[in-house]
UniProtKB/TrEMBL annotation:
SUPFAM superfamilies: Periplasmic binding protein-like II, Winged helix' DNA-binding domain. Residues 8-65 form the HTH lysR-type domain. It comes from Variovorax beijingensis. PROSITE patterns: HTH_LYSR (PS50931). CDD domains: PBP2_Nitroaromatics_like. It comes from the Bacteria. Belongs to the LysR transcriptional regulatory family. Keywords: DNA-binding, Transcription, Transcription regulation. This is LysR family transcriptional regulator. Pfam families: HTH_1, LysR_substrate.
Length: 331
């Protein structure tokens, strides 16, 4: 490995990360409690070291160059490594830790876990801010690697070999129908289920979700096929469509029962043998050993265990940091 250049100041990495995050010299300076001239000087030094403008103006915008975008992930990984090298060996103190946590969570898992996580952070780690976004399965590995998100929560059939994977809990599926369905209020067998019209969930980033694919595969094994009449990009929209139409839909059982408290829905067991949906937590080696992220992952597991003990319909998985798999997909 080539020796580090003598004129490289590692603090410049912090400045570059702030510039990439904020997209403004002024906001980056405020973020690091620096003067604006000081941040401008740091940018000049970064330009000299990299041989690239790094940021260019377009109207009122401060746009990173291709070189800056390419460096973004490496900078975040480098800063995480430096944090690990120079961090205290003492016990982690969440109450005294400031930071930002970005979680990519699918809708159904977000509704279940994010309110609990937000409350726990506010109580135990008030200086850690929480940002939540929907995951894109095509970009998830990149997001976790480069620091666009720190944790992903969802139904991941496979996880890329670079990622750590922990099973959290299983969700049984249930069938919902509304007053317009011919069999509303009555039992429904498999034949009647197949003859019904269906609302299905395709994620915001793909036309079908693994949850729906599992149902279709179970039907195909019996030489059956359902009619998909409505497709929505949010699972949380499905109960409203079903309540106002003659269609049926499959949902995690706990979510179906929750919506049935406020909508005219009938909740039935699935008339088809479908395995429980296993919700997993994914993260990259970038955050595997850092104190804040380890504490947050333990907190997420604790919250799922408390939900199961409180009588929730979820089933906690005992698999924690198992072997990574390959690929990436989510409901």
């Amino acid at each position: 490995m080539a020796p580090l250049k003598k004129n490289v100041d590692l603090n410049l990495l912090v400045c570059l990360d702030a510039l990439l995050t904020e997209g403004s010299v002024t906001r980056a300076a405020d973020r690091l409690d620096m003067s604006q001239p000081g941040m401008s000087h740091a940018l000049s030094r970064l330009r000299a070291l990299t041989g690239d403008a790094l940021f260019v103006r377009s109207g009122n915008e401060f746009i990173p160059t291709e070189r800056a975008r390419a460096l973004a992930g490496k900078v975040r990984i480098g800063l995480a490594a430096l944090e690990e090298i120079f961090s205290s060996e003492g016990p982690f103190d969440p109450a005294a830790t400031a930071g930002k946590l970005t979680v990519a969570a699918v809708d159904s898992v977000g509704v279940l876990l994010i309110p609990l996580l937000a409350e726990a952070l506010a109580r135990e780690a008030p200086m850690i801010s929480l940002q939540v976004r929907l995951p894109d399965p095509e970009k998830l590995r990149e997001w976790l690697t480069e620091g666009e998100c720190d944790i992903a929560l969802g139904f991941y059939i496979d996880a890329h070999s670079e990622l750590h994977c922990s099973d959290l809990f299983g969700q049984e599926l249930a069938l919902i129908s509304g007053p317009s369905h011919p069999l509303h209020g009555k039992p429904m067998n498999l034949e009647q289920y197949v003859e019904s019209t269906h609302v299905v969930f395709g994620s915001p980033f793909s036309s079908t979700s693994p949850m729906e694919e599992i149902i279709d595969q179970a039907l195909k094994a019996r030489n059956l096929e359902r009619t998909q009449s409505v497709q929505v990009s949010s699972m949380l929209l499905m109960p409203y469509v079903v309540a106002a139409s003659p269609h049926v839909a499959a949902l995690p059982a706990w979510l179906a029962r929750q919506y049935a408290l406020s909508l005219p829905l009938q909740v039935r067991p699935m008339p088809l043998n479908v395995q429980p949906i296993i919700i997993r937590m994914l993260w990259h080696d970038r955050t595997h050993r850092t104190g804040m992220h380890r504490w947050v992952r333990q907190l997420v597991r604790k919250l799922t265990e408390e939900m199961a003990q409180s009588g929730s319909t979820i089933t906690v998985s005992r698999r924690t940091d198992g072997d990574p798999l390959s690929g990436a997909a989510q409901i």
